[in-house]
TrEMBL record:
Gene3D superfamilies linked to this entry: translation initiation factor eif-2b, domain 1, Translation initiation factor eif-2b, domain 2
PANTHER family according to UniProt: METHYLTHIORIBOSE-1-PHOSPHATE ISOMERASE
Record gene name: MRI1
Species in which this protein is naturally found: Penicillium angulare
HAMAP family the record matches: Salvage_MtnA
Role summary: Catalyzes the interconversion of methylthioribose-1-phosphate (MTR-1-P) into methylthioribulose-1-phosphate (MTRu-1-P).
SUPFAM superfamilies per UniProt: NagB/RpiA/CoA transferase-like (SSF100950)
Catalyses which reaction(s): 5-(methylsulfanyl)-alpha-D-ribose 1-phosphate = 5-(methylsulfanyl)-D-ribulose 1-phosphate
Cited InterPro entries: IF-2B-related, IF-M1Pi, IF_2B-like_C, Initiation_fac_2B_a/b/d, M1Pi_N, NagB/RpiA_transferase-like
Localization: Cytoplasm; Nucleus
Annotated protein name in UniProt: Methylthioribose-1-phosphate isomerase
Keywords: Amino-acid biosynthesis, Cytoplasm, Isomerase, Methionine biosynthesis, Nucleus
UniProt superkingdom: Eukaryota
Length: 383
């Protein structure tokens, strides 16, 4: 499996996803500022990975301050330093809730630590670093459970249990998480159970997370897969010889009523799935479920640069797979055209058959609505 995030004792490296699939290069992230830029520029992307990298970027900076012996000695000062960096990190990208969720949880941890009678600045920092490091292993664990629950659900709803085909969108794999993946984790689990006939992945314009990243992971991990352009999805669903069992996507934020923000194009796929009677599933850890957001209407959608739509990047020689390849940006749209580039869209809950989490698949109640607060109103709720 590919590894997007490498972390060891204060030293953080991420696989630069801007250069994939042509160049596999790790870059060092030494500070919250490095982390902010890596997230904003999409060197790392995907809701869980963004949150983990942000927290570990700050851990890395705190590690350097500790080595340089420049950490604040007073616990309240250490807390203030950490909270100001967290506030800064959450401004990098607005839609995925995992980042603000992680920031809130870790802020609570350092605030409680700073209140202890014997608290020290070093102790507050150590509590932050421990919690940030824990996220890395926890996410991998959660993804494996998501994969298992999703695969079981799809098999239980398939007419031919041992012969399943699924379509996925964007990248939700090892590159978007600490490993294994969410929606791609479901595909991985179907493969490991030997029931996956074929996975289909969309190209995912404009940023091509599907053709660059998901396709790369599928080839790398030898999962039987076919790439389609986004505009081919309708024809794929209409083709009865393909016999698609389900569309499985990830999520950047799931509201309390089940409305789901995910990569632009997800909504269109859900409409197609409904029309063709194909199951539509969202796979996400509980950290992506935002009970404080009532519905999709309350989710802020990130707008990105028009250049992502009007240009495309690839290797200059068109063949390279090794380091040293020169990546070139080429204009593909008519100069002067205005562009709308929302990075995500909202899929209304009514189009979703199930939300796959690490504790099982949440389905609608007998009233036809998701009741996320009833299922998750425990220690996982935030704010
Ligand atoms: C497990 S990742 C789930 C989502 O974050 C993913 O589908 C997605 O929309 C990623 O968008 P990106 O803009 O590449 O960060």
């Amino acid at each position: 499996m590919l590894q997007a995030i490498k972390y060891n004792d204060g030293s953080l490296e991420i696989l630069d996803q801007l250069q994939l699939p042509f160049v596999q290069k790790y870059i060092a992230i030494r500070s919250a500022e490095d982390g902010w830029h890596a997230i904003k520029d999409m060197k790392v992307r995907g809701a869980p990975a963004i949150a983990i990298v942000a927290m570990l970027a700050l851990s890395s900076e705190l590690h350097s301050l500790r080595v340089a012996k420049t950490l604040p000695e007073a616990p309240e000062e250490a807390r203030t330093l950490i909270v100001s960096k967290l506030d800064y990190l959450v401004t990098s990208r607005p839609t995925a809730v995992n980042l603000s969720d992680a920031a809130h949880k870790l802020e609570a941890i350092v605030t409680n630590k700073a209140k202890e009678a014997a608290a020290t600045g070093l102790g507050v920092v150590a509590a932050f670093v421990e919690a940030a490091e824990h996220m890395l292993g926890q996410d991998l664990d959660d993804n494996q459970r998501i994969g298992h629950h999703g695969a079981e659900w799809i098999m239980a709803h398939a007419t031919e249990t041992g012969n399943v085909a699924v379509l996925t969108h964007c990248n939700t794999g090892s590159l978007a998480t600490s490993g294994y993946g969410t929606a791609l984790g479901v595909i991985r689990s179907l493969k490991s159970k030997d029931v996956l006939r074929r996975a289909y992945c969309t190209e995912t314009r404009p940023y091509n997370q599907g053709s660059r990243l998901t396709a790369f992971e599928l080839v790398h991990d030898e999962i039987p897969a076919t790439l389609i352009t986004d505009s081919m999805a309708g024809a794929l669903l209409a083709d009865t010889s393909v016999g698609l069992n389900a569309i499985v996507v990830g999520a950047d934020r799931v509201a309390a009523n089940g409305d789901t923000a995910n990569k632009i194009g997800t909504y269109g796929l859900a409409v197609l799935a409904k029309h063709h009677g194909v199951k539509f599933l969202v796979a996400a850890p509980r950290t992506t479920i935002d009970l404080a957001t009532k519905s999709g209407k309350d989710i802020v959608i990130e707008q990105r640069s028009s250049s992502e739509v009007t240009s495309i990047k690839g290797p200059r020689d068109g063949t390279g797979t090794t380091d040293g390849v020169i990546l070139e940006t080429v204009q593909i749209a008519a100069p002067g055209i205005s562009v709308w580039n929302p990075a995500f869209d909202i899929t209304p809950a009514v189009l979703i058959d199930g939300i796959i989490t690490e504790v099982g698949v949440v389905e609608k109640g007998s009233d036809g609505h998701f009741h996320m607060a009833d299922v998750f109103n425990d220690s996982t709720s935030r704010r």
